[in-house]
Amino acid sequence: MxxxxxxxxxxxxxxxxxxxxxxxxxxxxxxxxEKESPxxxxxxxxxxxxxxxxELGGRGNECLNGSILAIEEINKNGGIQSKGGILLRYLIAxxxxxxxxxxxxxKELILDxxxxxxxxxxxxxxxIAATQIAExxxxxxxxxxxISDVIIERGxxxxxxxxxxxxxYAHTKVQFLEFLNRKFKNxxxxxxxxxxxxxxGTSGSLAEHKFLKQGGFSITGETSYVAADLKNFxxxxxxxxxxxxxxxxxxxxxxxxxxxxRELKDAGYTGPVIDSGGGTISQSFIDSLGPDAEKIYxxxxxxxxxxxxxxxxxxxxxxxxxxxxxxxxxTYQAVLVxxxxxxxxxxLAKEDIRIALSETNITSGTDYIIPDDQITFGPDGxxxxxxxxxxxxxxxxxITVWPEIYAESVPQES
Length: 414
What we know:
Layout: E1 2-6, E2 9-12, E3 23-25, E4 43-50, H1 57-76, E5 87-94, H2 99-111, E6 117-120, H3 124-136, E7 141-143, E8 159-161, H4 166-183, E9 190-196, H5 199-214, E10 218-225, H6 234-242, E11 247-251, H7 254-266, E12 273-275, H8 283-289, E13 297-300, H9 307-320, H10 326-344, H11 350-358, E14 389-394, E15 397-402
C-alpha cells in the first residue's frame, strides 16, 4: 500500500500479522486525509510536524524517517506495554518551512485530529510558533531540533527539547578553537561570523559573540543572509573571506551551507570553517561540495562510532537505504523519550503525559543514543544532560575529532 507525500516521494507500508501502523498524510494543498478504522480507538496518535517540501524538505524527510523507524520499532516490540500494548500511529503535517503554516498545522493536528502529542519541527522559527499553539491547547510538544532558546524561555509547561541550547552550540565552537590553539602552531585570534537570518542563525550569532568575547577572541567581521535568496549576499561572503580572519564560524542549513562553503573556497580562504550543524552533517553536504568539503568542521549532536549509534544506523540504512543523520537521530530519540513518558504516565490524558515528561530520568543505554549518560528535563523543558562534539570532513567522510574521548581522528589543518 502506498500513500504519497508529494509527487515523486512515497513511503511503502507493510503490515505484518501482529503489527498495524496507521499513517495519515497532510496533503500539500491543505487538510488531512483520514480513513476510519475499527482499530482507531486502540492507538495513540502522535503528530509529526516537519518541513517536508521546499528548501528544507530533504532534512525534514530525514527527521520523518527517524520518527517512522522509532514508531515501527516500538510497535513491533509490543507498543506501550504499561497501557496494555496499545500501538502508536502517526499523523504527518508539512510546515513547508513556514512558521505561519506550522502554527496552522499544529492547531489542525490538535483540534481536528486529537493528537496526543506532537514531535517537530526541525526549524527554530517554526518550533517557536508551533509550541505556542501547543501550549494554548495543552498538548505536549517534543522539539526534535531547533536551537533558539526562545523555544524554552517562555515558561511553557508543555514544551520539551532534547537537543542542547544555543549557548551550548556557541560555547562548543569556542572551546574547540581553544583546543586547536593548543594543538596547532598558528594561533587563532580573529574570527568572522556568517549566518542565515532566521531565529536559528541570529540567536546563534548572539551566543557566539558572548563566548568569543569571554574567550578573548576578536570578531573581525560578520554578515547575515536570507537563505532563500543567498545569491544577493555572495559579495558579502567573499568580503569576509578576503579579510582573511583566522577562523570563520558559520550557521547554515544544508543548501545555503553548500553555497557559503563554495564561495569561501572560491575566494581562496584556507582557514578553519566551523559550522553549527544545521545541515552540514550529512553525506549530501559532502557529495555536493566534493573535494571542497575536505577539512570543514561542524558541531554534531552524535558520536557515530558509539555502538548504540552504529547499531541504529544499520537498522536505519536497512529501512531507508541511506545513513542516519543527526536530524533523523534526534527525532528518533525524541520519540523514544515520548514513549518512556507514555509508559510512566498514570493515564493517557495530556496533563498526565506532560507530568511524566517533566519527570523523565532516562539512564538506560537502551533508551538513548546521544553522547551522554542521562536525559532529564529542567523546569523550562530543556534537557539538562547533553554534550556536543566536533566533526571534520576527512577523506570524504565526517569524522569525530573532538573531544578526545570520542575522537576517531585528530583535526587536520587546512
